[in-house]
Design brief:
about 110 residues; mainly alpha; Rossmann fold; three-stranded parallel sheet
Length: about 110
């Protein structure tokens, strides 16, 4: 079992591993680059750190490691945020987009 999920990669686009960890209720520590900030809202469901800044990453990891209540709160927020990217939600959003495009062409 894990208490925190860390994604230090600077090359991640929309990280499936991060989404899976969020859906499992884990707070996320992630590099602030590419699409990761779309998944992690700093201070809400995890923390973002400047890519390559090991001190900042360690600071936020310690904060999560030392506070079970914070991990629980952020983990719940991660689960909620992961639902925004769930397949049914994504399908609905695409259907709405297609409807708007098709309606505007008439």
């Amino acid at each position: 079992a894990a208490d925190v999920f860390a994604m230090p990669s600077e090359a991640e686009l929309l990280s499936i591993a991060t989404l899976q960890a969020m859906a499992a209720g884990l707070p996320v520590l992630a590099a602030d680059c590419r699409a990761l900030p779309e998944l992690v809202e700093h201070g809400i469901n995890g923390y973002l750190f400047r890519p390559g800044d090991a001190e900042s990453a360690a600071h936020w990891l310690r904060a999560l490691a030392c506070d079970g209540e914070l991990r629980t709160r952020m983990g719940r927020a991660s689960m909620e945020r992961a639902q925004e990217h769930a397949l049914p939600t994504t399908i609905s959003e695409y259907e709405e987009l297609y409807d708007r495009v098709l309606t505007s062409r008439r």
